[in-house]
Amino acid sequence: MKRKVKSLIKRIIPEKYRFQLASINDNCRFFFLFLPYIGTEFECPLCGSSFRKFLPNGLDLPVLKEKDIVGAGYRLNTLCPRCHSSERERLIYLYLRDNTNLFHENLKLLHIAPEKSLSRVLTTYRNIDYLSADLNSPRAMIKMDITDIKHADNLFDVIICNHVLEHIPNDRKAMSELYRVLKPGGWAILQVPISLSLNKTYEDPAITSPEEREKMFGQSDHVRIYAKDYKDRLEKAGFSIKTYSFTKEFDDSTTQKYGLLKEEDLYICSKPAPEQKIKKEVVREALYNVA
Ligand SMILES: [Zn+2]
Prior knowledge:
Blueprint: H1 2-12, H2 15-34, E1 42-43, E2 50-51, E3 55-57, H3 62-66, E4 75-79, H4 87-99, E5 107-112, H5 116-122, E6 128-134, E7 142-143, E8 156-161, H6 171-181, E9 182-189, E10 202-203, H7 210-217, E11 224-225, H8 230-236, E12 240-244, H9 252-257, E13 266-270, H10 274-290
The structure holds zinc ion.
C-alpha cells in the first residue's frame, strides 16, 4: 500500500515539489511527536524550551533502590524532550550560570565525557577556551585516558567531569591526574552517583562481568558505588572540597519546573592557590607550637 502511494505521488507531483512535500511530512511528524509534551509546567534552562512533562529515564534495578543512589533508578520527568539534558546537566548549568565566573572571565576549561547539551552551551561562549575529552566518545574533541593525562601540570582553570569516576578501576589515579592538571586556584565539578544509605564506598575488583556489575553496582560498566566517603577520597588526591546543596536554594515549584533532584549535592573541588597553602601551613605550625 505504502509503495503504491509513493508511486502515485511520483506520478502526480513533479520532482521539484517532492522535496517540499517531504519537509512538510517531517514537520508534521515532529509536531505529532511533541504534541503530548506541549505545555509550560517544565522548563529546560539549557535549550530554553517549555514542556508539559520531561521524558522518563533510568534503569529499574533493585540495587539502585536498596542503596538509595541519587540520580539513578527509573525516574519520571528526567530528560528534556528537545535537547535531552539530564537533571544533573541542568543543575550544573544553573550553578555555573549563577555562582561562578565561567561565563564572564577568560578561562581554560576541560570537559571530560562531555554531556551533549551542556557542551553545546559551553562552546557558544567565546571567553571559554573549551576542550572536551573522552576515552571513546566521538563527541569529544580529543581522546584522553584520565588516569594518564598527556597535558602539562597546572593547565586548566576549570574541569567538569561528571559520572566518569565510577567507571574507572583506578579512580584514585584519575583524581590525582585531574588535580595535577588543574591550576592552583582553579576548581572542578566532579559528580558521581552517590548512595545515601552507605557510609563507605562499595567496590570489589573480583566483580568483572557486565551482568554481575549491573546486579551489584547498578550498571554493567560501573566498578563501584560511591558513598559518603567520596569526599575523603577526593581530599586525599589534594582537592579542597565543598559539598553544596545548591538545589535546596530553589523552592519546590522551581525545583520541579527545572526537573532537578532535591538530594543531589554538588562536589566543588578546588586546588588551593600557593598563598592559601602557605596560610594552611602557618596555621598548622602555630597549632603544633601551641600543642
Ligand atoms: Zn532542553
